[in-house]
Automatic annotation (TrEMBL):
CDD domains xref list: SEC14
InterPro entries: CRAL-TRIO_dom (IPR001251), CRAL-TRIO_dom_sf (IPR036865)
Protein's name in the database: CRAL-TRIO domain-containing protein
Ranges of residues in domain CRAL-TRIO: 1-117
Region Disordered: start-end pairs: 139-171
Annotated PANTHER family: ALPHA-TOCOPHEROL TRANSFER PROTEIN, ALPHA-TOCOPHEROL TRANSFER PROTEIN-RELATED
């Protein structure tokens, strides 16, 4: 749902997205579910199916057993994506600022933007306001629907930079 909404934003289409994935709580049980077939599918989504340019994937709090799992996924990724994956570990508060403006990062990640809870609440409201459009997309065989200007979901003035920089994004 998130990618459907943000892919309609003109500025996001132009700039692409950077996302932060917090892997705190990612367990060995999660790792054991990753196999070569799933690794290939993950790669396909990132390189072929995702509707936007992936400018950066930033992983924080990744457990020590994540690196071997990522080593299984990595061979399937295009070189451009490989170069855009950054593992920050648990000491990410200083390194994320090399990739994101402080106003975009929430305080929980070393920035001075809005907190994660506030941003996620606002994004949930955007999704709820987009319910009719999401139903329309889901009911269309290809998911390819055209919208009029009146169907605009997110105005360019409405936190474009925050969405573009990867605030509260998920697949």
């Amino acid at each position: 749902m998130t990618s459907e909404i943000i892919s309609r934003e003109t500025e996001t289409q132009r700039r692409g997205v950077k996302a932060v994935f917090d892997l705190k709580g990612w367990s060995l049980g999660h790792a054991l579910q990753i196999n070569p077939s799933l690794a290939r599918k993950i790669s396909s989504v990132l390189s072929d199916s995702f509707p936007l340019k992936v400018r950066g994937i930033h992983l924080v709090n990744e457990p020590m057993f994540f690196r071997p799992v990522f080593a299984m996924i990595r061979p399937f990724l295009p070189d451009k994506i490989k170069q855009r994956v950054h593992m920050h570990g648990t000491d990410f508060h200083h390194t994320l600022s090399d990739f994101f403006l402080p106003d975009v990062l929430p305080p929980e990640y070393g920035g001075n933007g809005s907190g994660i809870e506030d941003v996620c609440h606002a994004w949930t409201q955007e999704l709820l306001q987009s319910e009719n459009l999401l139903k329309k997309i889901a009911s269309h065989p290809t998911g390819d629907t055209s919208t009029s200007a009146g169907d605009a979901l997110i105005s360019e003035e409405n936190e474009t930079k925050q969405l573009t920089e990867g605030r509260c994004l998920g697949p």
